[in-house]
Amino acid sequence: MPPVIRVEALTKAYASGHVALDAVDLDIREGEIFALLGPNGAGKTTLISVICGIVTPSGGRVLVRGHDIVRNYRQTRTDIGLVPQELHTDMFETVINTVRFSRGLFGKARNDALIERILRDLSLWDKRKAKIMELSGGMKRRVMIAKALSHEPRVLFLDEPTAGVDVELRRDMWELVRQLRETGVTIILTTHYIEEAEEMADRVGVIDKGRLILVEEKATLMQKLGKKTLTIHLAQPLDAIPRELDDWELSLHHDGHELEYLFDTRAERTGVSALLRTLGDIGLGYKDLNTRESSLEDIFVKLVHTPQSDEVAA
Predict the structure, then answer these.
(1) How far from 46 is each of 23, 88, 208, CA to CA, in Å?
(2) pTM as predicted
């Protein structure tokens, strides 16, 4: 099955010389939830804006459901729904009229039943006659999602959709995302809440300085790059790590009460047994041990803050 979105050698450079996108190649599968992660200024919003036809690329091409975004822009924009970071809408209009108007912009016939379902799914039905200016920030964000869904797109971009949204609204939004995916809608999201990507995404892409440095199945990524942290709760606090433990890359935490050791579970020798023996040999007692798996956030930080990004992406 061909990808629903194909990005080929996509470049965006500005007159100032800043390169926002540097030869990005990316395929998005139909019906998946794809999380695009990266630090501020990495190129996430620029990439989304080019695909959605808001920003003109400097080079390369993008196909949406087989249609070129430049030559077939009317079709591709109909296929796409976008929830931007910024809340841009008519503050003096009512919720329901705003959403109806958005549907009409795409030449879609009026469908009150559909609009009602969208507003109910987003807990906006009771606010349908309220003016946008009367809503909280979280409810305004929901209106932006309703507008994006009003013309029944097959691809939905969510650019930081839960920024400024409280926990309850965030949970409801992600439930809606799951429901949309079940109907075959492809979801591409950017988020600073990496735990959301860890919970929701099928695949993860990491962009940094305009370059896509990694695209991987989430489960495979965590298995490939994930490590475990062994935390040793000491019986007595330490002022410094003893020189006898130099063979292990240890760190001291919680005012000297905890030693942490990061190890690769795939390695033939993890070093854990030898470390515990050495602790006994030098008379360092401990009260408890526990381990935890690396999270997607740990992996993300490693990718964008170490010089190994090129190697990982290869």
Answers:
(1) 13, 17, 12
(2) 0.72
